[in-house]
Write a structure and sequence with these properties.
Layout (H helix, E strand, L loop, with lengths): L5 E7 L3 H12 L4 E5 L5 H6 L1 H19 L13 H12 L2 H11 L3 E4 L2 E5 L2 E4 L2 E10 L3 E3 L13 H4 L8 E5 L3 H12 L4 E5 L11 H14 L2 E3 L3 E8 L2 E8 L2 E7 L1 E4 L3 E3 L13 E2 L2 E2 L12 E3 L11 H17 L13 E3 L5 E5 L2 H6 L4 E7 L4 H6 L5 E7 L5 E7 L3 H13 L4 H5 L12 H4 L1
Parallel strand pairs: 1-2, 1-6, 2-3, 6-18, 8-9, 8-14, 9-10
Antiparallel strand pairs: 4-5, 5-6, 7-15, 11-12, 12-13, 16-17, 19-20, 20-23, 21-22, 22-23
Length: 451
C-alpha cells in the first residue's frame, strides 16, 4: 500500500454486499480498498448458505433411501461426518483466495483487520489510519446476544459447520432457519438425540403456519424433539456435557447434551465500527439508510444485513450492493431500491418456501382473495420420490387474478417458488399461469394445479 493511505472508496466487508461495489468502483478507475477482519467471502459463501447446503446435499442421500425403502431401492446409508465436512471444504477453503484474487485483479487493495471510524472520512485498521472520499459498509450480521448465564458455552452456526466429529446429543436454541436446518442435518447424520428449543408457539414464525405444522410433523417423524414455548434460562457445563435449563408454561425443565448451538437469530454486525465518529445513525435494526442506500453521512453507503433495509437474505445484499455502487459512481441519488417479489426457502427436508404476502398480511391490507390450500402427498410428484409431507397455499386476488402470495412445502419447493416469484414480478394472473406449458412430469408442472 505504500505511504499513500487516501482512497476514493473504502469498502468495509468482504462478502456479497461489498465485493461487487469494490469491483464496480475499481473498474471505473477509482482507487479502492476492501477490508475484512475474516477471510473474504462473507457469511453466505464461507459460514452460511453455501456450506450448509453442501451438508444438506449429503443428507439428501439418506432421505432418498428412507423415502424409497420398500419401493425397489435397496440401500444402507449413513453419513461419515468428517468426510462430509471435508466435502464442504472443497468449496469453502478455496473461496477466500479466489475472491481476494479477483478483487486484486480488478485493482482493489485487499486488507485484513478490525476497522473503526475515527472521523467522518477516516478509519483505523488494526490501529493504522486510512481515509477516503467515500465508504461503503457491508459488515453483515452476527449471532444476537442472549444475556443468559452460560451464554459463552454456546457454539455458533460457524462452529457447527467446522465440527470435526458429529455430536451424539445436540440442542439448538431457537427455532428459525439455522435451528431447523441444522437439526435436520444432525439427525440424518446419525445424532441420537436432537432437540430444538423455540420460545414461540411454533418454529419459523415468518412462514405459513399450516405448512409449518406439516414440517413439524415431518420433523417429529424424523426423530427430532421440537419443544415450543421453551425459553432458555441458562446453560451449564460439567463432566457429562451440557445442561440447558428452560422455562415452559408447565414449569422449568432441563435437557442434557454434548453440544448447544446458538440459533436464535442474528443482529447487525456494527457494534465495533464506532459509527458515531462518522456521523452515521443506526438502531438495533441496523444502519439507517435512505432508499438509495445512503446513510446519514452522505459520503457513506451501507447495504445487506448490517443496514435497516430489506430482508436479511444473500440475494438482497447483492442487489443492494449494485444499487449503492451505481449511486456512488453517479455521484448522486440516481437509483432507489425497488424490491421485486422476494422468495425465501428453509432447506429442511422437506423444504419450506415462501414469496409474497401471508394470509394474515393480506387480510391486514384488506385484500379480497381466494386461498388455495392443499396437501400434495398423494400427487404424482410426491409419490414418485416417496415424499410423505408436501403441500401448498396460494393466495389469489379475486378481482385481478394476480398471485398475492405462494407458500410451499415438499420436494421441488426451492425451484417452484422461484417460478412463482417470476410470475408475480411479471404480473401474470392465475389464468395465464394455468395456460403455460411446463415439461411433464416435473415439479413445475404441478403449479397450474395449485391455483
Amino acid at each position: 500500500m505504500g505511504n499513500d493511505k487516501r482512497f476514493d472508496l473504502i469498502v468495509i466487508g468482504g462478502g456479497t454486499g461489498g465485493n461487487g461495489v469494490s469491483r464496480m468502483a475499481a473498474q471505473a478507475g477509482w482507487k479502492v480498498a476492501s477490508i475484512d477482519s475474516l477471510p473474504f467471502g462473507g457469511t453466505c459463501a464461507l459460514r452460511g448458505c453455501d456450506p450448509k447446503k453442501m451438508l444438506i446435499a449429503v443428507t439428501e442421500g439418506v432421505e432418498w433411501a428412507r423415502n424409497l425403502e420398500g419401493k425397489g431401492l435397496e440401500a444402507r446409508t449413513s453419513v461419515n461426518w468428517p468426510g462430509m465436512i471435508a466435502f464442504k471444504r472443497t468449496f469453502t477453503d478455496a473461496m477466500p483466495r479466489r475472491i481476494e484474487g479477483g478483487l486484486e485483479k480488478a485493482g482493489v487493495t485487499v486488507l485484513h483487520g478490525e476497522t473503526r471510524f475515527t472521523g467522518r472520512d477516516k478509519i483505523e485498521v488494526n490501529g493504522e489510519p486510512l481515509s477516503a472520499r467515500h465508504f461503503h459498509i457491508a459488515t453483515g450480521a452476527r449471532p444476537m446476544t442472549l444475556n443468559i448465564p452460560g451464554e459463552e458455552l454456546l457454539s455458533t452456526s460457524t462452529d457447527f459447520l467446522e465440527l470435526a466429529e458429529r455430536p451424539d446429543r445436540v440442542v439448538f436454541v431457537g427455532g428459525g432457519f439455522i435451528a431447523m436446518e441444522f437439526a435436520h442435518i444432525s439427525k440424518r447424520a446419525g445424532a441420537r438425540e436432537v432437540t430444538v428449543l423455540e420460545m414461540m408457539k411454533r418454529p419459523l414464525n415468518n412462514f405459513d403456519p399450516d405448512l409449518v405444522e406439516i414440517l413439524s410433523e415431518a420433523t417429529a417423524d424424523l426423530g427430532i424433539d421440537l419443544r415450543t414455548e421453551a425459553k432458555v434460562l441458562k446453560v451449564e457445563k460439567n463432566d457429562a456435557g451440557f445442561a440447558v435449563t428452560y422455562q415452559t408454561p408447565k414449569g422449568t425443565q432441563t435437557v442434557r447434551c454434548d453440544l448447544v448451538v446458538h440459533a436464535t437469530g442474528r443482529v447487525p454486525n456494527i457494534d465495533h465500527l464506532n459509527l458515531e465518529a462518522a456521523g452515521v445513525e443506526y438502531s438495533r435494526k441496523g444502519i439507517k439508510v435512505s432508499p438509495f442506500l445512503r446513510t446519514t453521512n452522505p459520503a457513506i453507503f451501507a447495504a445487506g444485513d448490517c443496514a435497516d433495509s430489506g430482508p436479511n437474505l444473500t440475494p438482497i445484499s447483492a442487489y443492494e450492493g449494485r444499487i449503492a455502487g451505481k449511486n456512488l459512481l453517479a455521484g448522486k441519488d440516481e437509483r432507489a431500491v425497488n424490491y421485486p417479489p422476494i422468495p425465501s426457502v428453509v432447506f429442511t427436508l422437506p423444504q419450506v418456501a415462501s414469496v409474497g404476502l401471508s394470509e394474515a398480511a393480506a387480510r391486514d391490507k384488506g385484500l379480497d382473495f381466494d386461498t388455495h390450500f392443499g396437501n400434495t402427498a398423494g400427487w404424482y410428484s410426491s409419490l414418485r420420490v416417496g415424499a410423505r409431507y408436501s403441500g401448498y397455499k396460494i393466495l389469489v386476488d379475486k378481482g385481478t387474478g394476480k398471485i398475492l402470495g405462494a407458500h410451499l412445502i415438499g420436494p421441488g419447493a426451492e425451484e417452484q417458488i422461484n417460478l412463482f416469484a417470476m410470475a408475480m414480478a411479471a404480473g401474470l394472473d392465475a389464468n395465464r399461469i394455468k395456460g403455460l406449458i411446463f415439461a411433464y412430469p416435473s415439479f413445475a408442472s404441478d403449479i397450474g394445479s395449485m391455483i
